[in-house]
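Next up, sample data.

:::
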Amino acid sequence: MSIANQQVMGYAFLHGLYADAYFPDRVVDKGRKILLDLCERIEAEQPSDLTALYALTEAATKQFNALEGEFEAAGSEIETVAREEIAEDFWFVATAYGFGDAEVEALIAAREW
């Protein structure tokens, strides 16, 4: 499935991480894919409320949790800058799909980073 939301298609996910050599692009690429997969799931499942959206973002957050080990193996980590960038992109996704009332902390409540 491809993403239909034009706002999402024009968005540079994890831009700040790509701009910082501390974060290896090959690992950041995996994080970008997690976010794009989340967008595809939102379009496919069309969550009707925040509870349904949070269930989708929880699964994506857990994927980021698993990615932490790859950052560490590459000499990096999901630290303050990365946490903020990832959280901001989760909020962007929520608002792009009409959930402007989503709470950032609820979107990434399952995070371990």
